[in-house]
Structures are given as structure tokens and as C-alpha cells.
């Protein structure tokens, strides 16, 4: 089958590397300050006695070593797709071959389960090269299995030994990088010298710290969603009759919603972290939206665009308490045989005061979803709740009660999967290639338990800085399935930083005076100041 003209063109797109990688063989790492964990240092140290307290590393040029042995390295993609994953693998492949053409890169298939089961494909030039600058994770597939039980860790060790790996690169989000460092510690404890390195991936943008400026995939996802939001805005001011409620993927944190708001200036954007801080209730949010619809209607603007982050519901305190209570209730056997209506009746009889009021305020469709859509552990599937539809219904009800005379025609959208696997933006394509090289450099230097880090991302790629960040320095203890576990702390939107402050400064004017922006599709060609720009929030954080 013939390929699209864009695919052919993108394959030929020239990737640039940080200057330091002009001579990869001479790259070594200099120790900076020692690190600890984000918190819970004593407990975390006892769980990671070998890897706790590693120093932050900066790449520098050392003496040229001409002859490197061949390296055997495994690579795995873990979790949801994020544009640029293929370029990490290709960067790693090119780097290993640069060090020694006999080096070998082994892809673990369909995520971490490929490591546990020893399911592999050896990657060669012919196999990887068509994937250069393409989106998706189809090169080797991905999955969400976690390597955490003793049995899974033991099987992984056996696979690593069977394939005689010098290194393993785990490309994943917070949970996957947590698993990477758990595995790294386990290997050391069991006398295995294989080095484990993580790469920060996730469209959610919540895997970051002072040094890890951005997880890859975030830029492409936000540019994709922003194009679509801009198109909706254009439709809204043309048709002048619809109010678009857009739920945006991104799990708990609202980074995607904030970045898209800064790119497109919609009429209203929820930032979950602010909702939590202000302890807003569903009623209160509904009232705010209904006020907006009324105020716009008075200006003859019976249309609008509203952005809702995927995780909003978990940040509304009363909803959080309700969900926890429902999880408890539904764990009991008396609900097992009841249909939806009977379950609703029983819940209403059981809930007390405030929780009952919250439950009764919800539209019946959402009540049913809360009771019936459960994950394998029996918990409410928070990310499946149609928050956009919830607010469409509560606002319509509120407007009816107010005897609203204007018109309110809401339309629901969910922008999610379409942002994860598109062609990586120039920024993500180049960033990922550099991350692949960084992972190879860390393994070449015999370093384990580190996250590959490329920063100074607002500068030209040649001036990007290359670092190794101890994964443990991002960790704390959190409750998971009723037990305290060491995990990477999710980076939520900081309400005291530039990106949110800028949004706060302008959002009122975006409510009534339409200041819609139409970013259009991702720019692959033209002025690098436009095409290669990293996300807006990075600029505002650093300015
Ligand atoms: P990662 O955390 O693995 O990067 O996944 C991100 C994400 O796209 C979230 O934004 C979204 O909530 C979730 O994956 C959807 O998961 P699934 O692909 O299992 O439906």
C-alpha cells in the first residue's frame, strides 16, 4: 500500500542532537549534589538501600575512548501511547550502534509483560527505520502490566540473564518509572549487573521536577487538542448556537487543560487543582457555568467553549467522599444481585445527609454510571465518568429553574486517544531522539536507577543539557490498595507559578469577549521559532 505524502516527508525529517552527543564515546557524567526522596526518606531508604541517595548527574565531555565493547540492551514501552516513543527507541538504537556496530537492541513486546514472559524481537536497521518520526507505539507495542510481585521480579531477572543484557531502558510514566527503579534495586540485590534506566513518557505532563522539564508526548497531545478546540471555537462563532463542553484526557493533573487554554483562550476552563483548593461543590460549579451562559446570552452569545480536565471529578471534595463511600458500600454482597434502579434506591436509603444530597443532585445517568461501571477491584471507574455530560445536564436544570429565556444547546466532546499517537511535533521528535541517546549514554557509563533527562528545552536543541536524575529523588510513599507504597509523586498544576497566574490574569476577559485563538494543525515545516517551540507552560514557568 502506498504511504501518505506526510508520512514520507516526516520519515526524512532531520533530527538534531544536543552538541554534547557529537562525540558520544567521549560523554561521561559528572556528579552534582546528592539527592534524597521527595519525602519519607527513612522508609524509602530502607526499601532501596543500594539506590537511595544517588547524585544528580550532568553530562560532560571526557577523554575520548575509541573502543567500546558491544552492548546488549533491552527496551520496553510501558503504559499509554505518547508521540515520540519510536524516536526514543531509534535514538537508543543509533547511539548503541555508534558506540559499537555490533551492539544489539532487543525490544520487549507489548509492555512489561514482555520482560516477564521473555517475549522479544531483536531490532535491526531495516525493522526500526520506517518508524523514524512516526507516532504510536506499534513498533514493539505497549502494555500496563506492572513488575512488582516477587514472582514477576524473579521472572524478569531470569529473562534479563537469559538475554545477557547490559542494560534495560523502560520508557514510561510515573508508575512505570517506579517499577523501573524497583527492578533496578532487585537486580543489584540479586547480584545482577544489568543497568536499568527510565525515560519520562506521558501525555499527562505530570512526570516532572526541577530537572525533568517535560515528559514526552505532552507537546504533541496539547497541539493536537488545541487544533481541535480552535476548530470548535471557529464553529461556535460561525453557527452561534452551540455551547461545547470538552473533556480533555490527562488523568488527575490539569496540565493539558491549562496548556490548551493558554493556546486557545476558551470561555471557561476548569483547573482541578484550583477546584480542590477552593473546595468547590458541584452546585457551585453548576451555578458558575449557568451565570456564564446567562451573561453571554445577554450579549447575544448563545454559544461558547468550556474545557474540563479528565480528573476534575476526583478533585471535587464532596464527589471524592461520595465515591469512597460508594466503593465501600458496593463491596458488600447485598448489591450484587440488584439492577441499576434497585441499586439507586438502596444507595439513597443508605446514604446520609450531605452525601445523599450530592448523590441526588447528580443526573440519573451519572448515578447509574457510578454504581455500575466498576474496575476489576470493584471500584468506581472515575476516568470513565462523563463529566462533560454531567455538567451539561446540571447547567440545563439550573437554567430551567432560573427561567432562562435565551438558548442553551450543549454539545459533548471527549478529546483523548486522538492526541496520543499522532506524528510527533518537531519538538517531541527531536526531544525523544535526544532522550534515546541519553539513555544509551547512562548505560554506557554503567549507571542504574536513573531517569534519562534532557533539559534547557527552551534553547535550540544543540544547547539542550543532558542529565541523569535519580528516580528515587521523585518518590514518596502513598496509599495504594490499602498499603503504603513507594511511588513517584505526580506533579500537579502549581497554582503559584507562571502558567496558572497567566491563565488567571486573562481568563475573565476570555469569558465574555471572545478572544478565541486558532492554532491550526501541528506545524512541521517553516520557521523553527514556530515549528520547534516547546509547550507554552514551559515558557511561562521559566520567564
Ligand atoms: P500514561 O499515564 O500511561 O502515560 O497514560 C496516559 C493516559 O493517556 C491518560 O491520560 C488516560 O487517562 C489513560 O492513559 C487512558 O488509559 P487507557 O489507554 O488504558 O484507556
Automatic annotation (TrEMBL):
The keyword Magnesium applies. Keywords: Cytoplasm, Glycolysis, Kinase, Magnesium, Metal-binding, Transferase. One of its GO terms (molecular function) is 6-phosphofructokinase activity. It is found in: Cytoplasm. Non-allosteric. GO terms for cellular component: cytosol. Diphosphate binds at residue 80. Residues 72-442 form the Phosphofructokinase domain. It is an enzyme of class 2 (transferase). The active site is at residue 204. Mg(2+) binds at residue 174. GO terms for biological process: fructose 6-phosphate metabolic process; response to glucose. Its cofactor is Mg(2+). Substrate binds at residues 202-204, 241-242, 249-251, 310, 417-420. It catalyses: beta-D-fructose 6-phosphate + diphosphate = beta-D-fructose 1,6-bisphosphate + phosphate + H(+). Pathway: Carbohydrate degradation; glycolysis; D-glyceraldehyde 3-phosphate and glycerone phosphate from D-glucose: step 3/4. Belongs to the phosphofructokinase type A (PFKA) family. PPi-dependent PFK group II subfamily. Clade 'Long' sub-subfamily. Homodimer. This is Pyrophosphate--fructose 6-phosphate 1-phosphotransferase. The gene is pfp.
Amino acid at each position: 500500500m502506498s504511504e501518505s505524502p506526510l508520512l514520507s516527508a516526516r520519515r526524512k525529517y532531520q533530527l538534531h542532537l544536543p552538541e554534547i552527543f557529537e562525540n558520544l564515546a567521549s560523554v561521561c557524567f559528572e556528579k552534582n549534589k546528592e539527592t534524597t526522596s521527595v519525602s519519607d526518606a527513612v522508609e524509602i531508604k530502607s526499601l532501596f538501600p543500594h539506590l537511595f541517595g544517588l547524585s544528580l548527574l550532568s553530562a560532560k565531555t571526557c577523554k575520548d575512548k575509541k573502543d567500546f565493547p558491544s552492548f546488549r540492551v533491552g527496551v520496553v514501552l510501558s503504559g499509554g501511547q505518547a508521540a515520540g516513543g519510536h524516536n526514543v527507541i531509534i535514538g537508543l538504537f543509533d547511539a548503541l550502534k555508534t558506540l559499537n556496530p555490533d551492539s544489539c537492541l532487543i525490544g520487549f513486546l507489548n509492555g512489561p509483560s514482555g520482560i516477564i514472559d521473555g517475549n522479544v524481537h531483536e531490532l535491526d536497521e531495516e525493522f526500526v527505520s520506517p518508524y523514524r518520526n512516526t507516532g504510536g507505539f506499534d513498533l514493539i507495542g505497549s502494555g500496563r502490566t506492572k513488575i512488582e510481585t516477587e514472582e514477576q521480579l524473579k521472572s524478569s531477572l531470569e529473562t534479563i540473564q537469559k538475554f545477557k543484557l547490559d542494560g534495560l531502558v523502560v520508557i514510561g510514566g510515573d508508575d512505570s518509572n517506579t517499577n523501573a527503579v524497583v527492578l533496578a534495586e532487585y537486580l543489584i540485590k540479586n547480584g545482577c549487573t544489568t543497568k536499568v534506566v527510565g525515560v519520562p513518557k506521558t501525555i499527562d505532563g505530570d512526570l516532572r521536577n526541577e530537572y525533568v522539564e517535560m515528559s514526552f508526548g505532552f507537546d504533541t497531545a496539547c497541539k493536537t487538542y488545541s487544533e481541535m478546540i480552535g476548530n470548535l471555537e471557529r464553529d461556535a462563532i460561525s453557527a452561534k448556537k452551540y455551547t461545547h463542553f470538552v473533556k480533555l484526557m490527562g488523568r488527575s493533573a490539569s496540565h493539558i487543560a491549562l496548556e490548551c487554554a493558554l493556546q486557545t483562550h476558551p470561555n471557561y476552563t476548569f483547573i482541578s487543582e484550583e477546584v480542590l483548593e477552593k473546595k468547590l461543590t458541584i452546585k457551585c460549579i453548576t451555578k458558575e457555568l449557568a451565570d456564564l451562559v446567562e451573561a453571554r446570552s445577554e450579549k447575544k452569545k448563545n454559544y461558547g467553549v468550556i474545557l474540563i480536565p479528565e480528573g476534575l471529578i476526583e478533585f471535587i471534595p464532596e464527589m471524592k467522599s461520595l465515591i469512597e463511600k460508594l466503593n465501600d458500600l458496593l463491596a458488600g454482597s447485598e448489591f450484587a444481585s440488584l439492577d441499576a434502579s434497585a441499586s439507586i434506591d438502596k444507595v439513597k436509603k443508605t446514604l446520609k445527609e450531605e452525601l445523599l444530597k450530592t448523590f441526588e443532585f447528580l443526573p440519573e445517568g451519572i448515578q447509574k454510571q457510578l454504581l455500575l461501571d466498576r474496575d476489576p477491584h470493584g471500584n468506581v471507574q472515575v476516568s470513565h465518568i462523563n463529566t462533560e455530560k454531567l455538567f451539561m445536564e446540571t447547567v440545563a436544570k439550573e437554567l430551567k429553574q432560573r427561567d432562562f429565556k435565551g438558548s442553551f444547546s450543549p454539545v459533548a466532546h471527549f478529546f483523548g486517544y486522538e492526541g496520543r499517537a499522532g506524528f510527533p511535533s518537531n519538538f517531541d521528535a527531536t526531544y525523544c531522539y535526544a532522550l534515546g541517546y541519553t539513555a544509551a549514554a547512562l548505560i554506557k557509563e554503567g549507571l542504574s536507577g536513573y531517569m534519562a533527562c534532557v533539559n534547557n528545552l527552551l534553547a535550540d536543541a544543540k544547547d539542550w543539557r543532558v542529565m541523569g536524575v535519580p528516580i528515587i529523588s521523585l518518590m514518596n510513599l502513598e496509599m495504594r490498595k490499602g498499603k503504603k507504597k513507594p511511588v513517584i509523586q505526580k506533579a500537579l498544576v502549581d497554582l503559584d507559578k507562571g502558567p496558572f497566574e497567566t491563565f488567571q490574569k486573562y481568563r475573565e476577559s476570555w469569558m465574555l469577549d471572545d478572544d478565541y485563538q486558532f492554532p491550526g494543525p501541528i506545524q512541521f515545516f517553516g520557521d523553527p521559532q514556530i515549528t520547534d517551540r516547546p509547550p507554552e507552560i514551559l515558557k511561562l514557568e521559566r520567564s
